[in-house]
Write a structure and sequence with these properties.
The protein is 40% helix and 24% strand. The chain is α/β, with parallel strands linked by helices. Strands 1-2-9-10-11-12-13-14 form an eight-stranded parallel beta barrel, surrounded by five helices. A four-stranded antiparallel beta sheet has the order 4-5-6-7, with helices on one face. The protein has a two-stranded antiparallel sheet with strand order 3-8.
């Protein structure tokens, strides 16, 4: 089996010749600038993402963007202007990882809701498959390209538009206004799901990053489950696999996630970084593929510790298929070869 065949065999719910090991292609690029995949022969498989849609605004909405500063002071200031008002976002960047960090979200007050709702009500979404097709061709057998549709509306509003504090205030204190805003974004999101169903992508990414420490089961059932039920149904009918990113605290949401027809729980982070074990996940999600995130706090440990945890993860999840070990978060790139040497050694010794 080549890398792509091995990974897709497992994503489809089977057992391959060995447990796949994955890394996002942009993390590998940052960790090894100018180098090819140094662990390709040991089975390290690339995951890329290409967006499947493009949004178009009508002529009543404009977006202005400017960049100021450099290095640690670099910021991008984005302003959305509508007939009912304007909202502004400020985003800084980590110079080491070049990661975007929003310092001021678009929604800062109740007055801002109507601006963002107008923005969504005057946005249309269209298919855009060219980037996916080109990326998939370039990836070839080194890995797979996942079709991107953005996180669920509830996650997008929390992470990108409102920030956690304002989101919590919205769902608890301004429920009518928040629900109206989410309904407007959900209309767009359902169209993206339909576009994904018609796309050439075989795996479609829900990039949620939700955590049970913030989203309780009642909130999940109100704001997540209906959209999952709609999306998973039409994607499954189209022969697509659904791939959902859950790298937070999953134990409070274990039954909620069991109730939705997601194929692959990705970025699941086991102890010692999170509380829910692989064994618990197997028990509550027996039909789902479990693609774990190798805990970032272990990257700083000696090789023998990394090998010990890798063996334990393989013993818990690697015997029956439907199991992937992956790297889904940024880390100290100076530790890349040290960590992956230990992981691949331990995986090669596993005889499950």
């Amino acid at each position: 089996m080549n890398l792509r065949e091995r990974l897709m065999t497992v994503y489809r719910g089977g057992k391959a010749d060995r447990v796949p090991l994955t890394i996002y292609d942009w993390i590998l690029k940052a960790a090894c600038p100018g180098e090819a995949n140094p662990f390709e022969k040991e089975g390290l498989t690339l995951l890329g993402v290409a967006t499947l849609f493009k949004d178009k605004l009508d002529n009543t909405v404009t977006i202005d963007q400017k960049e100021v500063g450099s290095g640690r002071d670099r910021q991008i200031i984005t302003t959305i202007k509508t007939p009912v008002g304007k909202v502004t976002e400020c985003a800084g960047f980590d110079p080491f990882f070049d990661s975007k960090w929003i310092t001021k979200h678009f929604i800062k007050s109740l007055e801002d809701y109507k601006v963002m709702q107008y923005f969504y009500d005057h946005t249309k979404t269209e298919p855009q498959y060219d980037d996916f097709i080109a990326a998939d061709k370039k990836m070839a057998e080194r890995g797979i390209i996942i079709g991107g549709i953005h996180p669920l509306p509830v996650a997008w509003l929390m992470l990108e538009i409102m920030g956690t504090e304002n989101w919590c205030e919205g769902v608890m204190l301004h429920t009518d206004e928040y629900d109206a805003l989410q309904e407007s974004l959900t209309r767009i999101y359902k169209r993206r799901l339909e576009i994904a169903a018609d796309s050439p992508a075989e795996v479609v990414w829900y990039a949620e990053s939700l955590t049970g420490t913030i989203v309780s089961p009642p909130l999940f059932n109100k704001y997540c489950k209906p959209t999952y039920d709609y999306g998973c149904k039409i994607l499954k009918q189209a022969g697509k696999l659904t791939f959902s990113h859950y790298d937070g605290t999953n134990l409070p949401l274990k039954d909620c996630l069991a109730s939705v027809d997601i194929n692959i729980i990705e970025a699941f982070t086991p102890p010692p970084m999170e509380r829910m074990t692989i064994t618990q996940a197997r028990q509550v999600w027996p039909d789902k593929v479990l693609s774990i995130n190798f805990p970032g706090i272990l990257f700083s440990e000696p090789s023998k510790v990394i090998e010990k945890y890798t063996r334990e993860y393989m013993e818990e999840g690697g015997n029956e298929g439907k199991f992937v070990i992956g790297c889904t978060e940024e880390f100290d790139f100076a530790r890349f070869k040290h960590t992956f040497s230990a992981i691949t050694r331990a995986m090669a010794k596993f005889s499950g």
